[in-house]
């Protein structure tokens, strides 16, 4: 039953709706998996070069890592980073990026028509990751390469020593094995744009054979099979089913990718992206479980949402439109307030499905559709989308609670009716509950009533909203869009009531009374 008895109600020019939700520590979904706060560094545009790595920059350390970007990465709360692609990996030779820099070859990156000088490679990435305090997630080239090259890379990276490749790593100055746990078996191989694109049957077999061999070499690895490149692919669902029929017992995760865009000015559908992401997660979980049932398996395949974000893809002319260049400015989207609210809602979706999604990576980290922007030789700053990520990564702790708001709905052209209020909450060890909530309704504010367990009181209330939804941050004005303290939250017995502005993201921490 919708709660909006008084919806809509005129207040000035805006329509005010009402909604309510209950926070109950008894309704647990599952633990907050730290790997949900992952990011992605691809050799694409300026993500690596002049993004995280810029020798000669005034703030670069002795290894050429930009310390300003390292600090922002830590502040963002990123726990894991996928590397080195993306489409880039499907024609990449990892050997080109190790050993003495002056001996590394320059190559053509066919994915993004870029010249790659290989001055940054595996060992640089792993040194950077250690400095940032994040777990690496490596992608293997199963586009133009196969089982043998995947085995060679894992031997180089993870085997302690005494073999040709592990000793080569040691000769390259890395004595201890990198011990990389998480490996992607290729990238988006269902896509015809991918170097080495395959049918589901071809890829399923290759993924299974690669997984079998890698497990023999290093039984401790966790493996991610490629799912569909997006939910609009003609083979969406069928691809996952066929791949898992070949590789079910050999892999741990199946990947999902989704980018959202206010294409054709359809902002209502764009604001409902979180609901679409949830539909996608549940569809692929059901597909995996269907295969598991047919195979009489008791294993559950988890989901790795290893590329997600807002990307104005409809404004991108495609790879074929690119001129050959060295780390060009590629898809450097500038994000506004609406984009930040959508990113907040996508994070809410990932948490709502924490029982199934074990890994998630926002794509990408720096410059390329990224929360962190840099200028070569110049400053680094936070885009609007930085803020919901950083606050969610910092405060979503403990267990995820099931939260189902009773609220109005918004009609969307792409996804039909979507709930106006999108929410999740986490329960920390000290009994504190943090609520993350989005009002995706453009028509007006929403008066939200939150039923709380006994003894909790509001401790922090932050809000990302703006009268100008197109406001952005820039090098000149890096603080234009930022979360501000929310106002007007009042307690009425055990209920908290507050007003959520139209198109807003809100976080409230409720802490036990002293
Ligand atoms: O993140 C940009 C690109 O989007 C990645 O290279 C690819 O995997 C996806 O299509």
From TrEMBL:
Keywords, ordered alphabetically: Carbohydrate metabolism, Glycosidase, Hydrolase
Alpha-L-arabinofuranosidase C-terminal domain mapped to chain residues: 306-504
Domain of life, source organism: Bacteria
Enzyme class: hydrolase
Reactions performed catalytically: Hydrolysis of terminal non-reducing alpha-L-arabinofuranoside residues in alpha-L-arabinosides
InterPro entries hit by this protein: Alpha-L-AF_C (IPR010720), ASD1_cat (IPR055235), GH (IPR017853), Glyco_hydro_b (IPR013780)
EC number(s) on file: 3.2.1.55
Family: Belongs to the glycosyl hydrolase 51 family.
Oligomer status and interactors: Homohexamer; trimer of dimers.
Protein name: non-reducing end alpha-L-arabinofuranosidase
């Amino acid at each position: 039953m919708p709660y909006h008895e008084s919806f809509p109600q005129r207040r000035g020019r805006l329509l005010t709706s009402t909604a309510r939700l209950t926070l109950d520590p008894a309704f647990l979904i599952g633990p907050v998996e730290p790997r949900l706060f992952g990011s992605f560094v691809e050799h694409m545009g300026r993500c690596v070069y002049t993004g995280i790595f810029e020798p000669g920059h005034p703030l670069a350390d002795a290894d050429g890592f930009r310390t300003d970007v390292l600090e922002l990465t830590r502040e963002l709360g990123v726990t894991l980073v996928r590397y080195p692609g993306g489409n880039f990996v499907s024609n990449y030779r990892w050997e080109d990026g190790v050993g003495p820099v002056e001996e590394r070859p320059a190559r053509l990156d066919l994915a993004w028509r870029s010249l790659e000088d290989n001055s940054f490679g595996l060992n640089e990435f792993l040194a950077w990751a250690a400095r940032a305090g994040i777990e690496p997630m490596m992608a293997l080239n199963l586009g133009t390469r196969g089982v043998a090259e995947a085995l060679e890379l894992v031997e180089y990276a993870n085997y302690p020593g005494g073999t040709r490749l592990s000793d080569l790593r040691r000769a390259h100055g890395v004595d201890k094995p990198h011990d990389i746990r998480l490996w992607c078996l290729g990238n988006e191989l269902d896509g015809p744009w991918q170097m080495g694109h395959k049918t589901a049957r071809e890829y399923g077999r290759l993924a299974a054979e690669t997984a079998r061999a890698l497990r023999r070499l290093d039984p401790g690895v966790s493996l991610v099979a490629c799912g569909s490149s997006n939910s609009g692919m003609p083979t969406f669902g069928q691809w996952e089913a066929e791949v898992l029929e070949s590789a079910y017992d050999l892999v741990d995760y199946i990947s999902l990718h989704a980018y959202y865009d206010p294409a054709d000015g359809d902002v209502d559908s764009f604001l409902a992206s979180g609901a679409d992401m949830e539909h996608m997660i549940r569809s692929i979980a059901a597909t995996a479980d269907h295969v598991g049932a047919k195979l009489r398996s008791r294993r559950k395949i988890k989901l790795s949402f290893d590329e997600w974000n807002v990307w104005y893809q409809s404004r991108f002319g495609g790879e074929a439109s690119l001129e050959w260049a060295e780390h060009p400015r590629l898809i450097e989207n500038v994000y506004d307030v609406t984009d930040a609210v959508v990113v907040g809602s996508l994070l809410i979706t990932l948490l709502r499905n924490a029982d199934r999604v074990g890994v998630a990576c926002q794509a990408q980290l720096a410059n390329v559709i990224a929360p962190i922007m840099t200028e070569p030789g110049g400053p680094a700053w936070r885009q609007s989308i930085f803020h919901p990520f950083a606050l969610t990564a910092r405060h979503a702790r403990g267990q995820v609670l099931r939260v189902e708001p009773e609220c109005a709905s918004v009609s969307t052209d792409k996804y039909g009716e979507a709930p106006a209020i999108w929410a999740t909450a986490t329960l920390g060890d000290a009994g504190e509950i943090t609520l993350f909530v989005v009002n995706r309704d453009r028509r007006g504010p929403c008066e939200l009533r939150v039923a709380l367990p006994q003894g909790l009181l509001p401790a922090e209330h932050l809000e990302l909203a703006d009268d100008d939804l197109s406001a952005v941050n820039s090098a000149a004005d890096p603080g234009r869009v930022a979360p501000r303290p929310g106002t007007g939250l009042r307690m009425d017995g055990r209920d908290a009531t507050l007003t959520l502005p139209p198109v807003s993201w809100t976080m409230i921490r409720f802490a036990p009374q002293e």
